[in-house]
Amino acid sequence: MTTEQEVKNIEGKFKNIFGTVLTNVAPASNYRGETQNNRAVLQKLSFPNKEQYTLVSAEAIRSRLREMLRDDDLLKGKLNRSRVINPKVTNPKAKEAEATGEEEKDQITVKFDALPDRDRFADDLLFGFLMIDEKKKKEVLEKQGDSILRVNYAVSLEPFPRYNTHTMHQSPKASEDSAYRNAKKSALIEREVHVTAFQYPFGLNLNDLRHLPGWDSFPEENKQEKKRWIALLLRAIGELNGVGGNHARTMYPFAPVSIVLRLTTRRAPEFDIYGFRPKQDNKPDESQQELIQMLKEGLLPPTDFYLGGRIVREHPALRAALAKKKGETSHTADDAQDLGQLTEVHLFETSDAAIEAVIAEAKLDAARTNS
Prior knowledge:
24% of the residues lie in helices and 21% in strands. By secondary structure, the protein is of the alpha+beta class. Strands 1, 5, 6, 11, 12, 15, 16, 17 and 18 form a 9-stranded mixed beta sheet that branches. Helix 5 (220-238) runs antiparallel to helix 9. The chain starts with a helix and ends in a 10-residue tail after the last helix.
C-alpha cells in the first residue's frame, strides 16, 4: 500500500515523456557519405526475422533537431553550438605535407560560443555536453551534462527489398572554361533507394531539470524558461525535416504521420517503442496492436497515453473511441465494439494536437492551436 509520503514524492516529481514517431512513406536514399565504389548505400541492420532493415542514425536526428532549434527566433542567443559550414583547411598533414603538399580533408566542424552552461544555453541542457579541454575545464561548474533527450535508430517499416533497389544518374563534368571544376570527368552514380516509412522512439527525462545546480533556488520565470525549451524541442519533432543533411538531398519529411506519446512518472515506456507494422493487403492493420489491447483492458493506465494522427483516424477501435468521446454516433460496425478503457486515452486526429496536449499537461508551455 502506498504511504502518504510516497504519494507526495510521486506528485512532486516531474513526469517523463516517451514517444514513437511514424513517418509517411517516401523513397529514401543517400546522396553521399558511405559508398561502395560509386554506389551510395543505405545503412542496414539484420533483425531476428533474418530480414535487413534500413536505418537512420539517432545522431542524424539529433543533429537536425539542433539545427531546427537554431532557426527558432524564440531561442536567439540561447544556443551555444553551431555548425561551421565549409571550414578553411589550414593544417597540412604533418608527415605527408613535406613530400606531397597534401592538406587534410574538410572535417565536420562546430563552434562553441562560450563554455558549457545548462542554465544559459538550451542546447547544453537538451542535448548534453562534454568538456575535456584541459585548459578550460577548471573554469566551468560542470564538466559533463547528460542529454535530456534520448533517441534511438529510425528503422524502416518494411525490410529492404531484394530487387529494384537502386537508381542511376550521371554527374556532369565541368567545361575547361568553367570558373571552377569539381571534376574533369563525368561519373555514373548508383544510389540505393528504399520506398518505406520509418519509425523511431524518443524519451525526455524531465526530472533532469531538478538536477541543475541551484534549481530549487531558481526564480519561477527561469524554471519556466527551461520547460519552454523542452516544449520547443517537442514541436521541432512534430515538424522534423532534413534529417541526413547533405547526405540526403531527396526530400524525406521525418515529421510524424502517427505518434504515440506517454506522459508518466515511470522511468521506462513499458510499451513496444517499435510497435508500428506495415499494412498488409486485405488484412487488419497490426500497428500498436499490443498497446491498444493493453489500454483497452486497463493493463496500462490509459490516461498516460496520447495518440495522434493516422493511427487514430484509421484504426477502427481508436476511431470509435474518439467518436464516442466527442459524443458522435455513426451507426457503423465501429460503434458496436467493446472499447473497454480506450475512451480514457487522449486521442487526436493529428500528431500536432497530441504533442500540444502533452506540452500543456506537462506544464511546459501553453498549448498552441492551429490557425
